[in-house]
Each structure stands twice: as C-alpha cells, then as structure tokens.
Amino acid sequence: MLQRAFAFMYTVADWPLPDTANSDLIIYWGRQPIYSGPVSSAARAFLEATQRGTRIIAIKPSVEPDAGMADTWVPVRPGTDAALALAMLHVVIKEDLIDHDFVARWCYGFEPLKAQVRQYSPEWAQIITGVPAAQIEEVARAYATCPRAAIDVGNGLEHAPSASDAVRAIAMLMAVTGHLDRPGTNLLKLPPPKAPGDITLKHRFTGELVDKLVAPEFPKYFQPFLEGPTSAYYRIWESVLTQNPYPVRGIIAPGTQPLASTRGTRNVLAALERLDFFVVLDVARTPEIPWADIVMPVATGYETDHPFQYGPSWLMSTNRVINPLGPYKSMFEFFLDLGKAMDYGDDFWQGDIMACMDEQLAPLGVDMAGLRQHPVGLTFSPARHEYEKFDRVFKRPSTRLDKGPFLPQGKVALYNTTFEQAGYPPMPEWREPPESITATPDLTRTYPLILSDYHTSKNFSASWQRNVPFLRELEPDPMLHIHPDTAGTRGIKDGDWIKVTSPHGWLRVRAQLYPGIRPDTVMLLHGWWQGCQELKMADYPLTDGGANVNIMYSVDPEKAYDPMVTAMTSQTLVEVEKCRRPK
Residue 347 and residue 349: Cα distance in Å, rounded? Predict the structure, then answer.
C-alpha cells in the first residue's frame, strides 16, 4: 500500500480514491474488489456500480469475479502495467483527448511528458503487454472522453520493478484528462476537522535515525514517508546475510511469516540460520517457528477489545467476542510491554493500552469507556465533498525531514523536479521484469510461459487458513490456473499433478484448466505451506517440490526491485509438465 501511496503523493499530493458512487465508467486496475479485503465497502460499491449500468473495465491477467462481471476485460501480461499505462498516455495526448484548461493551470511539465510518451505507442505496448493495440486505444479513449470516469488501483501493480512508474503514469492519466476531484472521478482529500491523535513520535525522526535505517523501503532522501522511516521487509533479511549497512542480529516477526509471505525463501532460510535472536509473535503456528528462540502467542481479534475502529463518518470501539483462551495479550500490548521493559515507559503509556487508546481519542472528544457506551459506534454526518480544491491539496507539505512540498510547483508533477534532484527519472518510463517474453526471449525456449500469483482467494488470505478443515475441504490442494489450450498441448488434464519449473526452482501442484486466463500465463495462489492435522494433510516443503511460489522469482537487487519503492517482482518464466502425485 505504501508503494502506491508514494507514487501518488509525489505526483498529485494525495492518494485519489475513486468516486464509484457517481462514476459512469470505472477501471479496476490490478484490483480485486470482491474478496481481497473487507466486504463492507469495495464489494458493495462494485455491485452497486454494475447494477446502475456503470461501464466496468477490469485490467488483470486472469478472470476473477470483477472481470467476470465487467463489460471489458483487458488481459494484460503480469508485470507490464507500466507499459500499458504509458501507451494509454500516448493515445490520450496524441489524440488531444486532454483537459486543456486543467493541464494549463494545474500541471507542470506537460510538454516534456508529451515528448516522453511519444515512444510508447499502442503497437509498442502490444508486444510487451500482450494486449491488442486496438483495445489499448479503445480503453484510453473511453476513459478520456467519459466525464465521470474513475480508476481503482489495486496492489497487483506493486509486484514489478516498474511499479512506481505504473502508478505515476496512471495518476498522470487522471490529471491530463481532468479526472481529478470532480464528480465521478478520483477524489482528492483534505485532513478532516477532527481525527485521532498522532502517536508516532514524529519529533524523534532525525537525519541520524534515517541514516541508521536498515534496508530503506524508499530512498533516504524521501524518508520518513507517511508512517515514518520504513524498511523493506525482504531486504532486512537480505541485510542479515550481507551485513550491509551493519550486521542485523535479532528480528521480531509480528504476524509476518517471512518464509511464506516474502520473496527469496532460500535467503530467508539462510538468514534465520545466521540470526542470534529470533522471536515469533502470532496467533497460530507459522513456518518460522522451528528457528525461533522465543514464540509468543498473542490474542486473536476475537479475544481483543482494542484498538478502536475509525472512518470518516464512523467511530466504534472494538469489542471482544470471547475472553482470551490463555494467559496472553494482544500484539499491541506486547509492544507496549516491551517498550516499558526497555525503559521507554513514558513513550509507551507505561504499558497501559487503554491510556494509549484514550490519548488517540482525545481530539475526538471521547475516551474508550465512553465509546463503549455505544455498542454500534458513533456515526457523524459526512461533510459534503468540496470539489476542485487543487490550490490547497497541491501545496501539501511532504513528510520528509525538510518538510518541503510534495509538489514544488504547486501543480501535478508530470515532470518531477524532486525526483530529478535526487537522481531519479523525472518522468515515468518502462522497466522490464527480470525474466519476461520481451526481456529475456532466449529463456522462452526452455521456459515459454509467464508465472505470477494471486494473494487471496475465496477461501484463503495470503499464507493463512489452510489449517482450517472446512476451508481446506473446499480447496484441498494448490491449483495452478492454466488455459485449456496450453494444457492440451502438454497432455495435461484438469486435476493432474504437474511440475512447474522456473530458472530459480520448481513446484508440485495440481492443474486447474481455466479458460479465463491468458494462454501464455499461469497463476497460482500465494502462501501454500500449512498442513491440516484434522484431515491428515502434512505441511508442504518450503522450497523445491512444495507449493511456495516465492521460490520461483528472481531476487537480483539490480533487476528485481523497483528503484524508488523497492517493489519486488512476482513474475518469471516457467515450463509446466505432468508429474507424479506427491507421497
């Protein structure tokens, strides 16, 4: 999420969310609104839009529920979204489908951008993305000429070395077409009049702290970002091995499952062997527990009465369903207790979680005790949205130490002088994945198919829940989506056990013949490792011969990372063949 936020903030000084309730056209780009998050908002908004006749365009490599209900499916190759967005910019600018008044008044660097995207034609993009040039042109025209059009950008774009430029290019599409902060477009926000108190100790953020940061997620010049100084999780494990910038000797893993949820599983395993001290905090068994010095069970959300829930027009206390089943606390309380034990008690409310909550609630004029008197929460009349507040949003100060503005010119950064001064490209450009049909054509003789992965399904979230018998009965084995024609040429039938091999490793999974996927692409659900004791199913191997898709991708720091936001690739080339059922 922070990776998308970074690109948006340094292009339009906000993360402009789609006004789906008023849109006549919505592009769901790398987004899964049905079961990739809480159903209370995104899924309802999607269904309401379809029911009132809004045109839905889904951009993704395979058909999921949103694409299945869409008017148009754009079957882009995994990891090539930046090329598609640049080609759409090419069409919009070449055909003069721009909002001239908005561009003249509120955009900086239009002429350089116009020259930059001239090279990114739909015909060029067709070769890279696999999307026909005619469809690229049609979607670009439809978006640009519809007055109430919005784009909902998902985290599917965050898994490529061109992730930042993909989001920047999409933000520029919104801007040059005038689809910003107008009804039915992508809306800009100002801070609400009242909000929970900030407890991030921002006065402690210093240059010295940033200089000591291990594996910075964003370049140090741009630290801290919205949530403070941040590190890239896989690169922390990499630092354990490289000892750069200094040896990392201890790690606490709070609900993160690095062996199943990050790329580079083999390097994470090697780093776990090297660590002096490793702590796992979680609500259930994780694959890292055999390497842990201490395992701390923590309370689930069902056993926890904090934190509070907050939205623009809603405030509610968290209410536990049951008391904790053991002598343990929540993850929040663990860190408060740890801070107190390390003699930082004054900064951690002396371990008092309710004092922590009350301090955050104080600006809202309530405390946790008072909030609990309202079992279904407090609702507020949402303020009427004020449109076209560009003069205020575009002057927003950044979160950097120097507090300079996100947009130095007070305009949309089509040409980003801040990036240029820091040594990064001022305009979006195309960057190939480490392995792809167009980047490494020689590899396609051995590995002719593109592999990527899903992060959620109708049953499972990321690397969780395979140990739940009822869910596992619905989806007992890892299934690879493969087009029937692609499977047929390999003698593969639906349900066959297959071996999937990339330049970096191999998996043993089952084939699911799936017409709703590109014939040159196969996709697998991320996060397979858990067994299920009740169904007598053993854990899967974490490396070769298992179903952990993270072993299949490159982790070459020169090729696999986006240089601005450390987004890591989740595409590679593979071959698929029948194999024996695992014992």
Answer: 6
> What confidence category does residue 382 fall into, taking pLDDT thresholds of 50, 70 and 90?
confident
Indicate the pairing of strand 17-18 with strand 294-297.
unpaired
- Predicted confidence band of residue 36 (pLDDT cuts 50, 70, 90): low
| Least confident residue range of 8-17, 169-178, 308-317, 487-496 | 308-317
The per-type count for the chain, helices as H runs and strands as E runs, is 20, 20
Contact 356, 336 (CB under 8 A): yes
pLDDT tens readout for residues 200-215 = 888 889 999 999 999 9
Count other Cβ atoms within 10 Å, centred on residue 516.
14
Torsion of CA 429, 432, 433, 438, to 10 degrees: 150
**Closest Cα partner for 520 from 419, 452, 418?**
452
Nearest one of 391, 397, 558, 526 to 452, comparing CA atoms: 526
Distance CA 27, CA 385 (A): 22
Cα distance between residue 290 and residue 312, in whole Å: 43
Instruction: Provide the b/e sequence for 461-474 (b: ≥16 CB within 10 Å).
Output: eebbbbbbeebbee
**Tokens at residue 221, please?**
């010049």
Rounded (to 5) percent helix, strand, coil in the chain: 35, 15, 50
